[in-house]
Write a structure and sequence with these properties.
Blueprint (H helix, E strand, L loop, with lengths): L2 H41 L12 E5 L9 E3 L2 E5 L3 E4 L1 E5 L7 E9 L11 E3 L4 E4 L5 E11 L5 E11 L7 E8 L4 E7 L10 E2 L2 H6 L9 E6 L7 E7 L2 E6 L5 E4 L13 E7 L5 E7 L2 E7 L34 E6 L4 E6 L4 E2 L37 E7 L9 E7 L6 E7 L12 E4 L13 E2 L10 E6 L2 E6 L7 E7 L5 E7 L16 E7 L7 E7 L15 E6 L1 E8 L5
Parallel strand pairs: 3-10
Antiparallel strand pairs: 1-5, 2-3, 4-8, 6-7, 6-9, 9-10, 11-12, 11-36, 12-13, 14-15, 15-16, 16-17, 18-19, 19-20, 21-22, 22-23, 24-25, 25-26, 26-27, 28-29, 29-30, 30-31, 32-33, 33-34, 34-35
Protein name: PKD-like family protein
InterPro entries: PKD-like (IPR032183)
């Protein structure tokens, strides 16, 4: 046989043998694997029995909760400081309710609302707590963690927290209490007297368990941008001040925390804000000096938000800031020491116009004629030289009006001459006013030279219009006319001996789209009638289309009694309006 043929035969035999060996090895390994698997199964027999998963259904036990709070099984509606009780009803295929750990949490309801500071509010099976969160929409979440498996289950509730009745909309009435020798706050839950409100007494001490300091003399309501749904309420007292939460009047911050460094002298005179935009300016006048801070939706949530140090200058300011919403960072101010106006721009801390800080030189020289400034026959005025003391200032158009009119009242040192200067607020003044000054003669405006209180409506035609002032136990209505033609007559007369403590026009602070029909058309008066046995009262009077007061002291639009000595009154609007 040829060698090549032998080679092929041997190769074939070897190949067949190798295939046979591979087959045997494969069969051998397969048998070993099967044997191992069978052994493993035999050893673990009974350890892998099938179990159904634990299915848990979480619901509220509606028979065990307040149905006035639970609108539906998944929706909660309550007021701030209300108590909340939530009892769950579980149905599950394995185990019992005691097999879970519980945690109750409050989280944000949507991305634009930040998480509340009070995040975890309970860790018991049944939630019993007091909701002190500020008014807003939230999500209440309960976590059930299986003690055996560590698996967590969750149940969500929509939760709307509204302001307490006394922390929503109404009139704040600051009072001195004889028994406690301190002060406290009452709230009348009405807007304009059109609907009878309820009076809640001592709401400050009810929450804080202590009174306001003795001598507290002023309550301020500061409205920030409407979409922010945030307000500030502050109180002034001798050598100090206090900020509280607007929805329940809980203590928030004392005056020493309003500044990086506490001022040497604390003599607070005014706290308010300008602007409805997101970047409004809040200002504070302390001891005749102004401080301010810019408040935005971001900064207000990142306390502390300090006031700038006082703006020092050649001036000593009267406690009035003339502003409007269209240019809220421009403050028209009055220097009571040098009897002149000045304008301060808050965003860069400069005067407008940009002139050196020289008394009676903050504006360009007056460009009108000398006749316009004549003491008795002229009706113009020089911003640099007003000559007298500014005793009161108030807007006579809504602050949302672009550069709206303001009334400013001046009186000489001898208190025998009073006049009104009415002008549109601006962000620049040419100092050429030829009109706007009105003489208020004692003969035609009785008691004007000793008038202690003023109030100005916001709905009458301007320039001109009307205003109200107090002389003894009477409120006079003054119709503004050219030069010395203004005249006044008693609009209200209270019992002899009555002290008229506060007089305010209803100015809601709402954005124009939400103005009520009574905006600027209601006069609110607080009295001390204890001399005639009448006690302390708060009256509401409507005003007619020409500015006259409707009704009488014996026949007001509405009347609230039962107060102690009233010190101040301020309106607080509803949040988000």
């Amino acid at each position: 046989m040829p060698i090549t043929s032998l080679y092929k035969l041997d190769h074939q035999i070897i190949s067949d043998h190798m295939k046979h060996m591979k087959k045997n090895i494969k069969l051998f390994l397969t048998s070993i694997l099967i044997t191992l698997l069978m052994m493993g199964c035999y050893k673990d027999k009974g350890n892998y029995e099938y179990q159904d998963p634990n299915v848990v259904n979480i619901a509220v036990d509606l028979d065990q909760v307040d149905r006035n709070v639970f609108i539906t099984a998944d929706s909660i509606d309550l007021n701030q400081n209300d108590s909340l009780k939530v009892k769950l009803k579980l149905s599950q295929t394995i185990g019992t309710a005691s097999g879970f750990d519980y945690q109750w949490m409050v989280t944000q309801a949507e991305a634009s609302i930040g998480n509340p500071g009070q995040f975890v509010i309970g860790n018991t099976e049944e939630l019993k707590t007091k909701i002190t969160l500020g008014p807003n929409l939230y999500r209440l979440v309960v976590q059930l963690k299986d003690k055996k498996t560590g698996v967590s289950l969750y149940k969500h509730f929509a939760m709307n927290v509204s302001a307490a009745p006394w922390g929503n909309e109404g009139w704040l009435v600051l009072q001195e209490e004889a028994a406690s020798d301190a002060s406290d706050l009452s709230v009348i839950t009405t807007r304009d007297g059109a609907q009878k409100g309820k009076v809640y007494h001592n709401v400050y001490s009810a929450f804080n368990q202590h009174k306001l300091p003795k001598g507290t003399y002023k309550v301020n309501v500061v409205n920030y941008a409407t979409p922010m749904r945030i307000q500030k309420v502050s109180f002034f007292y001798p050598n100090g001040g206090l900020e509280v939460r607007s929805t329940d009047f809980a203590d928030s911050a004392k005056a020493e925390n309003w500044y990086v460094a506490k001022p040497g002298i604390i003599n607070f005179q005014l706290n308010s804000a300008a602007g409805v935009a997101a970047g409004g300016w809040e200002y504070l006048i302390n001891n005749h000096q102004i401080s301010y801070r810019q408040v935005s939706a971001v900064s207000i949530k990142l306390p502390p938000l300090y006031f700038n140090p006082p703006f020092f200058g050649s001036f000593s300011l009267s406690p009035f800031v003339i502003n409007s919403s269209n240019s809220d960072g421009y403050f028209t101010l009055y220097d009571q020491a040098n009897h002149c106006f000045l304008m301060l721009r808050a965003d860069n801390g400069t005067f407008v116009p940009s002139l050196p800080d020289v008394p009676n030189k903050h504006f360009a020289n007056y460009t009108g004629t000398a006749a316009n400034l004549h003491p008795t026959t002229g009706s113009g005025f020089d911003l640099n030289n007003m000559k007298h003391n500014l005793i009161y200032a108030e807007n006579v158009e809504p602050l949302s009006t672009s550069n709206g009119y303001w009334n400013t009242f001046f009186r000489n040192n001898n208190s025998d001459s009073t006049y009104l200067v009415q002008f549109p607020r601006g962000i620049a003044y040419l100092n050429n006013f030829k009109t706007g000054r009105y003489f208020l003669k004692e003969s035609s405006c009785p008691g004007i030279n000793t008038a202690s209180l003023f109030a100005c409506p916001t709905y009458l035609p301007l320039p001109g219009g009307a205003f109200y002032y107090v002389n003894k136990n009477s409120v006079y209505t003054c119709k503004v006319n050219t030069l010395s033609g203004s005249s006044a007559a008693p609009g209200l007369t209270f019992p002899s001996g009555t002290l008229i403590k506060v007089m305010k026009i209803f100015k809601s602070g709402y954005v124009p789209a939400s103005f009520p029909s009574t905006e600027g058309k209601v006069l609110v008066i607080a009295t001390d009638e204890s001399a005639s046995g009448g006690g302390h009262k708060v009256y509401f009077f409507n005003l007619n289309s020409t500015g006259d007061i409707i009704g009488s002291a014996a026949n007001p639009a509405d009347l609230y009694t039962g107060f102690e000595k009233i010190t101040d009154v301020a309106f607080k609007k509803a949040l988000g309006r």
